[in-house]
Amino acid sequence: MNDTSTLKIFKTDEEWRAQLTPEQYRITRQHGTERAFSSPDFDLSKKGVYHCVCCNRPLYRSQAKFNSGTGWPSFYEPISVDAVTTHHDTSYGMSRTEIRCADCDAHLGHVFPDGPPPTGLRYCMNGVALTFEEE
Description:
Layout: H1 13-19, H2 22-28, E1 48-52, E2 58-61, E3 65-66, E4 74-75, E5 84-89, E6 96-101, E7 107-112, E8 122-125, E9 130-134
Antiparallel strand pairs: 1-2, 1-9, 3-4, 4-8, 5-6, 6-7, 7-8
């Protein structure tokens, strides 16, 4: 992963607020977190692709999704190495790695080193930050 993208999307707060629901805006633009088990997609098991709710960039394949037991959609890898960017997050007195959409900088969630093979990573995403396109 890297901290650069080839197609950056910039919008004003007013434009984001007009496009997103209040909850989507709070999560993606204000770096919020949804309640565990509140996303309708946290246990979705259909085949398809998860996209950024803000810009529709493909982010994760359903084949990389697994049940982490946390109540948030979890994946062991993004769809490509340049789909997301990582950022150091020290909010709430913790040191975590934040995951953002590479195109629009939407806050998606965090990645942790306790996932399954083959990567050993758990991309713990806010379901509200994703849309699902079934195959």
